[in-house]
Structures are given as C-alpha cells and as structure tokens.
Amino acid sequence: DDDDDDDDMIDRPEEPRPVVANGDGAGPAPEQANPLADVLGGGLQAAHIALLQQVSRTGYQPFNKPTMFPLRLLLLIVLVSVTLYLLSTVGFILPASVGRYIISLWTGDVKIHEMYTLASGLYVCWAVGRLITGLTMWLPRGWNALSEKARECCILLLNTLLAAVFLFIIIPYLLGLLFEIVVVVPIRVTVDQSPLFFPWQEWALGVLHAKIICAVTVIGPQWWLRRALERVYLDGIRNLNIQYTIRRLAVPVITALLLALTIPYLLAKGFIPLLGLGFETEVYIERRIYPSLLFIIVSSVFLLFQIKQFKKLYEHIKNDKYLIGRRLVNYERQNARLEARDQPPPTLPPDHVPAPVNPI
Predict the structure, then answer these.
(1) Cα(80)–Cα(73) distance, rounded to whole angstroms?
(2) Cys bridge to 95: 121, 224, 242, 332, which one at CB 3.0-4.6 A?
C-alpha cells in the first residue's frame, strides 16, 4: 500500500498542448469543452447518461442546388411511374396469360374463371423462379452435387405425382360421383329421364366434399382415417412415405368408395331382374337403391351408437351406485335376497357322523 501511495505522489509531466497560430503569434491552443467533464463527478451513472445523450455537433453544410433541379425531379417521378406500371403489368398480365395458355391446353375452348387462370399462372411463375434460384445456388457446387440434387428432386416429384393421382384425382372423383348418384340424381332427375354425368363437375364436387370430410375427420375421434391423415400431414412433401400413403390411406378409401358404388348397382342389375318385377319397377329400384341403402346404413350406425351410449350410461350408473373400489356391494335382486332370507338352514341326516379331527 505504501508503494502505491508513493507512486500516486510522483509528479507526472504534463502533456504538451498543441500550438496554433493566431493573430498575436504562436500560442497554446484553447481548451475545448469536454461534455463528460461536468458529469465525471457524478459517478458512473452520470457518465453513462452523458454518453447516451451526447449529440455530435456538425458544422455548417451549405446546400448546393444542382442544375436543372425541376427537370430532374420531374424525370424521377416519370421513371418511378413507368417502373410501377411495368411491375404491375408483369405481375398481373404475365401470370394470367401463362395460366390461360396452360388451361387452354387442358380444357380447349371451354371458358374458365380468371381466378383459376391467374392462380395457375402465378404457380407456374413461382415454380420457374424457384428453379432458377435453385440452379444459381447449386451450380457453384459442381455438377456432381447438382446431378445428385436433381435425382432427389425427380424421385420426390414422382412420389408426389403418384400420391396426387390417388389423393387428388381418383378419390375426389369417386366421392363426387357417389354424391351425385346418392343425392343429386334422385332430387333433380325423374324416373322417366336418364341422368347425365360430367366428370369435371363430379371431380370439382368431390374436391369440395373431400376437404369437408378431412376437416371433420381431423377434429373427430381417434380412428384409422384420422391417424393416416395426421401422419401424411406431419410428413409433408419432402418426407412423403409413398408406401404408407397408398397402403394406409388411398387403398382403404378407394375400396370403400368402390364398394359403395358397385354393390347397389350389382343388386339392382343382377338380383332384382331375377324377381321378375317388371321394367318400370326395376328402373325405379335402380334409381332409389342408393339413397335407400344410405338411409339404412346411417340409421343402423345411429342405432348402434345409441345402444353403445346407453350401455355406457348403464355401466356408469351401476358403478356409481354399487361399486366400492373394485368390488360390487349389495348388488343383488330384491327377490333373491328375500328368498335367501326365508330359506331354513340346511339340516344334516340322522346317520351323519362327523369326520374325526386329527390333533395337531
């Protein structure tokens, strides 16, 4: 400690001040005001506040007005307007034109709503942009890495297309056709008329009903369809398991829809003509067999559900009233208890001899 005090008492030489030239000759430079000098006595907090509140003073900066300033400003506004016009034109006209061309290759001269054409064009433009971005990212890594990535993308694309054929084409079409036969045809078409089916309309109707069924299934109870949908949704496109998707989701749903479509048709065309009921009766049964079977199935399912619920209610009441722990107490019929109470105790025959007891 004494050494530290001695060091503090040593006089240190003052740093020389810079010399500047003034009107009276050379002299020391005037001291500049230090913004921290006033707050150093206030402690560390005051120093921090001064650092945060310190504002750098700038000198006078004259404004030099450029030549032809109004013309330049007008030119800037015109260029901004032209740029916005070109961007809006490319953003709206290009996707719509691309979508119209793509849909015309598929549907021909059929008029399609502009919303679908714009959506198709935007998706195609997005896919092209993603392709260009991916190429710019993978080309510097070499052709080997690019070929490996292209192979993975091709495999993923094939798996996605295969799953899309089952999930977005076959299943919606079968679902829409079943809804058309069960609901729309009995309401809109009389018995003496022949119904007409349009595959495009059935598919669009099936897509709508498939979305509704998926939403209801996901928020419903746990069963095999909900587990399969959740598994496919959680896997996503990149981790899509095509075997699981086809075996656990596509094949059972398609089988159920095909059975719902073919079994009533086989009954109406194969079994009913054997009864000899007449042509008009056969046509009437053929038209009404689908809604009739649907009503029978829904009624049966509802009846079984109510029976199951009543059984659960009965078990719940029985357990609340008689169950203590895991044993049933006093759960006997009243007549059985009275009969057991009225019966005399069992009597032994007169020649009965008790068995000898061996002493221990």
Answers:
(1) 11
(2) 121
Q: How far apart are CA 93 and CA 99, in angstroms?
A: 10
Taking the C-alpha atoms of residue 206 and residue 204, their distance in angstroms, rounded to an integer, is: 5
Which residues, 6 or more positions from 97, have their beta carbon under 8 angstroms from its beta carbon? 121
State how far the Cα of 147 lies from the Cα of 138, in Å rounded to an integer.
10
With bands split at pLDDT 50, 70 and 90, how would you rate the model's confidence at 342? Answer: low
Q: Which two tokens stand for residue 60?
A: 């006078």
Whole-number Å distance between alpha carbons of 224 and 206: 21
CA-based radius of gyration for the chain = 45
Note the pTM of the prediction, 2 decimals.
0.57
| Helices 199-219 and 171-179, axial angle in degrees (round to 10) | 100
Residue 98's CB is within 10 A of a number of other CB atoms, namely: 19
Report DSSP letters for 307-348, one per residue.
Answer: HHHHHHHHHHHHHHHHEETTEE-S-S-HHHHHHHHHSPPP--
Question: Reduced to 3 states, what is the DSSP secondary structure of residue 26?
Answer: strand
Q: Is the dihedral of CA 76, 79, 83, 85 positive or negative?
A: positive
